[in-house]
Amino acid sequence: MRDELVLFTGRALVCGEHMERRVLREHTVKLGGRVAPDRSASVTVLVVGEIWTGPLRDGQRRYSQKLVYFEELMRRQRRHVHVIDGSGFGELLTGRHARCHDLLAP
């Protein structure tokens, strides 16, 4: 996670427990990453949590506004953003690699 700019979306279930954003941020910094305050073209890792509330921008794919933003950004800029879930974040905490999820084409 060294030098990655990380953004969290939704509610993260890490190692079987819902982890507060504050704790997620602390772990990110301990792993050498930086926390993005909001969506930005500079984000390199998007940690996708469960979508509990709020509007879905793309109901068919169940994508929030942030997911749609990053899917469009990756297509437009032709660059990769690592998209991981809470389980993947848990893998990073234990020193393993996280599986990167592909965003579905519209």
UniProtKB/TrEMBL annotation:
Residues 1-50 form the BRCT domain. It comes from the Bacteria. SUPFAM superfamilies: BRCT domain. This is BRCT domain-containing protein. It comes from Oerskovia merdavium.
